[in-house]
User: Fold this.
Amino acid sequence: MIEVSSHHARPSSPTKPTVYVVDDDAAVLGSLRFLLETDGFAVRTFRSGTALLNASGAPGADCYVIDYKMPDINGIELAGRLRQSDSETPVILITGYPDENISARAAAAGVKDVVLKPLLDENLLKRIRRAIQDHPRA
Assistant:
């Protein structure tokens, strides 16, 4: 049995980084899960920002991949909320709705990178690997 003492607990397998993916589109969640698991990541998916914020009892994430446009809370607001309790874990925002201010607003909320849909393949994998490498968990 794994006992989790804090939000910053490592997954049971230290060789397999954990990525939390938040997107309201089930097809995107499924394809990102497949992409990330194929590349060797452990993946936990959430259909909304609220679902992520309400999750408990799980090992902490090594990286968050969050969709920008969701019905309950947008990805930038979610990143800001995560920063209040977890200031170290990198956040990567994915969006199919780019605008000129999104990168600046995302950076202000502590987002490491913004990746445009539908280009969620090797580009996203590289950014996740770099984010985890730049911010290893204790």
